From TrEMBL:
Residue ranges annotated for the Glycoside hydrolase family domain, each copy included: 47-311
GO molecular function per UniProt: hydrolase activity, hydrolyzing O-glycosyl compounds
GO biological process: glucan catabolic process
Name of the featured protein: Cellulase (Glycosyl hydrolase family 5)
Record has Hydrolase as a keyword: yes
Highest rank taxon of the organism: Bacteria
Signal peptide: 1-31
Taxonomic path: Bacteria, Pseudomonadati, Pseudomonadota, Alphaproteobacteria, Hyphomicrobiales
Species whose genome carries this gene: Neorhizobium alkalisoli
Keyword vocabulary terms for this entry: Glycosidase, Hydrolase, Signal
Cited PROSITE patterns: GLYCOSYL_HYDROL_F5, PROKAR_LIPOPROTEIN
Length: 349
């Protein structure tokens, strides 16, 4: 659960660009799972709405995309702000912002990677909750209808419905998510959809928590005409599972939380994706990082993959979770993750 930007801080899988070697051909569902190994490239969600591009926010550079591609990552989760792309609810997308987003997606594709589109808004538009009078569910559905139409018949683009909704009941969020999925499918889009839960979509709170009816009780009722979706969870390893602390004291609990979520997936015959997780650079945290990846990669029947939080040119060098290289030097976390890019690692067997 990360409440706020860190800077301020499925059942089915109908098609996927072949991520191993990344040819442009479309492959059918793989029985062994998709094996997405991703990095969150932050920057386009930075700053305040209204700040100029290149001053308040930035999309990832070709150099950064190339670095992670060369390291072996095959997926980029790309955060951006809903309000920048659609300045007025139900209105047309801003042409300049839409082009920046499309250019970033093409740069990621040129690097041989799948893109996960991530409106990084915490279930809100300009700070107002989806489902409110000011931001009706229909506005969220309209946004996704327009975004799906930007990328028609592109199975190498995954639709992450929303980053970490919170302050909304699971029942209300389920309704919003189903409305958005319906709008996406009405465009003819077959893209994989990643569905978060409420309560920051934490794996540790999926089956319980104090925020109301748990995700586990409600979110299995997702409806998708294409049956091509998976559940996205996030899981940090620090004392409050927020990802804001420079330690990994809850590593054992975090690993157990992923296991419990995986059991829920398996019991409902569903699929999952670990969209955010991270540890600081401390040596004692590197084994915990490997444990998190192992949980996912050893169960490709239910996990589609993972994406580490985070990298991007604008992260401060001292940000403990950041794995953007400094002066060409790999971070310790990168050294830990690199071992999973061997062709002999778990989900490739």
């Amino acid at each position: 659960m990360k409440s706020g930007s860190k800077r301020s801080r499925s059942r089915g899988w109908h098609a996927l660009v072949a991520v191993a070697g990344m040819t442009a051909s479309v492959q059918p569902a793989l029985a062994s799972g998709a094996c997405l190994r991703g990095i969150n490239l932050a920057g386009a969600e930075f700053g305040e709405v209204g700040e100029a591009y290149g001053k308040g926010y930035i999309y990832p550079s070709a150099e950064t995309i190339g670095y992670f591609s060369q390291k072996g990552f095959n997926t980029v989760r790309l955060p951006f702000l809903w309000e920048r792309l659609q300045p007025k609810l139900y209105g047309a997308f801003d042409k300049n912002e839409a082009k920046r987003l499309a250019d970033a997606v093409e740069a990621i594709r040129a690097g041989g990677m799948v893109t996960i589109l991530d409106p990084h808004n915490y279930g809100r538009y300009n700070g107002t909750l989806i489902g409110s009078e000011e931001v009706p569910q229909s506005a969220f559905a309209d946004f996704w209808r327009r975004l799906a139409m930007m990328f028609p018949q592109r199975p190498d683009i995954v639709f992450g419905l929303m980053n970490e909704p919170y302050g909304i009941s699971a029942q209300d969020w389920l309704s919003s998510a189903n409305s958005a999925i319906s709008a996406i499918r009405q465009t003819g889009a077959i893209n994989l959809v990643l569905v978060p839960g409420t309560a920051w979509t934490g794996a540790h709170s999926w089956l319980g928590g104090t925020y109301g009816t748990p995700n586990a009780t409600v979110m299995a009722n997702i409806t998708d005409p294409q049956n091509n979706y998976a559940y996205e969870v996030h899981q940090y390893l620090d004392t409050d599972f927020s990802g804001k602390n420079d330690e990994c004291s809850r590593a054992e609990d975090a690993v157990k939380a992923l296991g419990s979520f995986a059991s829920w997936l398996r019991s409902h015959r569903l699929r999952g994706f670990l969209g955010e997780f991270a540890v600081p650079r401390k040596p004692e945290c590197q084994a915990a990082l490997a444990d998190m990846v192992n949980v996912v990669e050893r169960s490709p029947d239910i996990w589609l993959g993972w994406s580490y939080w985070a990298a991007g040119e604008w992260w401060p060098a001292e940000e403990p979770l950041n794995i953007q290289p400094v002066n060409g030097e790999d971070r310790p976390q990168m050294q830990t993750l690199s071992r999973f890019f061997s062709e002999h690692s778990g989900c490739n067997q």
